[in-house]
Amino acid sequence: MLNNINKEIKIPNDFPMQINGASAWTGAEMLNDQSWKIEWSQNQLDELNQAAQHFLSLERPLEQITKEDFPLPTIHTLINEILGELLGGRGFVLLRGIPVQELGIKLASVIYLGLGCHLGSLRSNNAKGHLLGHIRDQGKDIADSKTRFYQTNKKLEFHTDSSDFVALLCLQKAKKGGESYLASSMSTYNEIARRRPDLLEALFMPYPTDRRGEVPAGLNPWFDMPIFSWYQGELTCVYIRPYIESAQTNFPEAPRLTQKQIDAMNLLDEIIAEGKLVLPMSFEPGDIQIIHNHQIFHSRSDFENWPEPERQRHLLRLWISPFAGRPLPDYFAARWGSVNAGDRGGIIVPGTNLTVELNVN
Questions:
Q1: How far, in Å, CA of 270 to CA of 81, rounded?
Q2: What is the reported pLDDT for 1?
Q3: Distance between CA 45 and CA 340 in Å, rounded?
Q4: What is the number of other CB atoms lying within 10 angstroms of the CB of residue 332?
Q5: With left for phi above 0 and alpha for psi between -120 and 50, is residue 178 left, alpha or beta?
């Protein structure tokens, strides 16, 4: 068996029975207070375009973009407010109004990458080192152990990604379906504590999770991670059940889940499926959704594409590590490579070279 470099995962003896504050919300509350929607003003759009033109004038590869090369003299105030909301508030925002169809994919991508650099460091989306992930149906079979759900048109179960922040920019929406759904993992935790406090301990046990073929050097093809971690006063969530289950199926040498761990996942999924905690969100071209993975689950419905390739659903994804990110326990390094804020998350395997590809099949 290979080394998982995991520090020992211990069940905390002081985990909370309830999380209070802005991060514990319900779908109805967010529908009633839509201050999470931010529309760009024309002056802000002009500033973003000027910053993009400045970077392009430097004639550097897109993967070398930095916030210094993408100057935002007035928008930086808004970015600080967004960071405060993501890290210490409800945990998500929707930025609306980038004219992607007028800009074209290159200029829209430069604006998107530049904004991402102001939020933190950009992380690799996959084993190929793509800093800009392409979320679209590539006709792949999810039964293939190396296929990830974003490469299909299938429904995504509620989950988290392997980064502090995940951002999605909509270039094209589907003919039908493909809606986004968010839920507070903090509110989900509170509901589990209310209904079955006897299952809380199981949430802090390690759950072997399939890496889906993207395996760093010297590590197992799965990583061990609790669904919830309680560290330095912060409750942090990591969850992608289909990959937990495929680790049990594909790797007999991976530790077996206990019945309480399975019961805890069943209850978590049941609570979200009831819908009370869920916020539905439909993307329009030019929308940028940014969420804090540590406190937000996200999912997507099945979708049907337009027959014309240029009209098919297409989102661009950024994984971002903010420099003011919360402290994480050492065992996160088994998946995140590091626990240092601003330099963690993403997928790095032997041969990975960071790059930005504007067209990925």
A1: 34
A2: 33
A3: 33
A4: 23
A5: left
E runs forming strands in 247-302: 278-281, 288-292, 296-300
CA dihedral 355→356→358→360, nearest 10 degrees, is: 40
Q: How many CB atoms are closer than 10 A to CB 303? A: 20
**Three-state SS at 275:** coil
Residue 256: strand, helix, or coil = coil
pLDDT at 30: 98
**pTM value > 0.85:** yes
* Straight-line distance from the first to the last Cα atom of the chain, in angstroms, rounded to the nearest whole number: 34
Helix axes 42-57, 100-119, angle to 10 degrees: 80
pLDDT along the chain (361 residues), means of 10: 57 96 98 97 98 98 97 97 98 98 97 98 95 79 51 77 97 81 98 98 98 92 97 98 97 98 98 98 95 97 70 91 98 95 94 89 54
Residues in the chain, total? 361
Closest CA to 165 of 226, 199, 123, 196: 123
How far CA 203 is from CA of 83, 176, 215, 227, 239, in Å, comes to 28, 36, 25, 5, 10
d(CA 133, CA 225): 24
